[in-house]
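Working notes for the structural subgroup meeting. M.R. asked for a predicted model of this chain before we commit to crystallization trials. I am recording the input and output together here so anyone reviewing the notebook later can reproduce the run.

Input as submitted:
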Amino acid sequence: MRVASLNLASGRGAGGRYLTGPALGAAVAGVGADVVAVQEVDTGQSRSAGDDQPSLLAAGLGAVDWRTAATMHGEPRPDPLPSWTPLDPPVLRGPGDPAPGPRYGVALFSRLPVRRWHVVGFGAGRARLPVPVPAPGGGTRVSWFPDEPRAAVAAELGTLTVVATHLSFAPATAVRQLRALRRWAAGLPGPVVVAGDLNLPGSLPGMVTGGRRLVDGQTFPATTPRAQLDHLIAFGRLTGRDPAVLQLDVGDHRAVAATVVPG
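Returned structure, recorded in token form:
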């Protein structure tokens, strides 16, 4: 089974413009995986033309089943200030469900039948991220943007469980969330693969969890990567083959992928 992860950046392409409609699905089609975790996914957001991005991604990836876990309602980016409401617990949505917006969160797509879905929320950290925003009278100023609520969504497949997540930009909070995710994943049918933007570099996620790192390669930023923030971490009797770091036509991170086999 080939598993991949991608930070979609709400559909931003290499030039900073948002890909919309079928172009978004086409941009992710080349990831070539059976199960794909995607972070920063929009539903009904003005910045991404109001698209139902999960449905477009499912079409591009050839997914037979999927779930998105929305963690925010409203517009999450400051213009000049954010106007969003945390969704706690996160709201799970799948094929055929209405697409209320504006929402934002993580998603997991599968070309294989899924036996059961699970979701868990981790809340938001206390850290704030400095973000340049338009200033009155022209120019820009720095706005301290609050951390987002975080969540994980898991799919029980025939031979393993895959978990998609996106952790806090604050390292201490991300470590705490990763430990909570590991405890939660221990109750899922194993073996388990965690796929996502963990916002923790290199070998640290494996050290924190005791898991096996399946891909070793720099992923961020996409154009000239200097750090690996995107990971596939295995728990249980699993090994990875043919690891890859992929630069797609969408997202501000490079995607990671590996074929997961018992062993």
